[in-house]
Amino acid sequence: MKDRKIKFRYFSIVEWEKEQDFLRREGLNGWHFTKATLLGIYHFEKCEPEDMVYQLDYNPDGIAHKEQYVQMFKDCGWEYVQDYFGYSYFRKPASEMSGNEEIFCDDQSRLEMVKRIFFTRMIPLIAIFFLLIIPSLYTQSTDPSSAGYVLSWASWILFVLYLFVFLILGRQFWKYWKDLSK
């Protein structure tokens, strides 16, 4: 019987709660989360089914002061698992939880995390869009050569792809922001 498995799941940057639920379900099914790699690749080891609560935090300042950051969560009973793509993964057996215990104690702290994600992930994407994609689109569309024609199409594809990503992620951020701001 296989003792390890790898699963692919994609969660957008505002779907960390769905990711937490996914990891918990795997533990209930007898698969212990060991690490996340690449984009959406989760590694698991076979174990006895256990109800583990997972919490993710996005805090670049915490990662910069990792020892104190991890110790703060350890003092509250959370086991540090790993840092991946800006998120820190923590877990705790559900049997050790007292009520609805979470890393974020209120909506304001969740909203602060959403703001951190937005400013560290979306602002660079917007900068790339306006500093590279738009100028490239203009430059390539004015080049009459066949290479310019191909690059023009590539620029248009990138332009549409970026717009799609902005619309999807922007909508998710806006919805989550509105829900927490109520």
Secondary-structure topology with pairs:
Blueprint: E1 4-8, H1 16-28, E2 31-37, E3 41-46, E4 52-58, H2 60-64, H3 66-75, E5 79-84, E6 87-93, H4 107-141, H5 146-181
Antiparallel strand pairs: 1-3, 2-3, 4-6, 5-6
Please summarize what this structure is:
The protein is 54% helix and 21% strand. The protein has 5 helices and 6 strands, in the order βαβββααββαα. β5 and β6 form a beta hairpin.
Give a description of the structure.
The protein is an alpha+beta fold and 182 residues long. The chain folds into two domains: 93 residues, no CATH class; 75 residues. It is 54% helix and 21% strand. The chain contains five helices and six strands; from the N terminus they run E-H-E-E-E-H-H-E-E-H-H. The strands form two sheets. The protein has a three-stranded antiparallel sheet with strand order 1-3-2. It has a three-stranded antiparallel sheet with strand order 4-6-5. Helix 4 runs antiparallel to helix 5. It is elongated and about 65 Å long. The N and C termini lie far apart (49 Å). The mean pLDDT is 87.
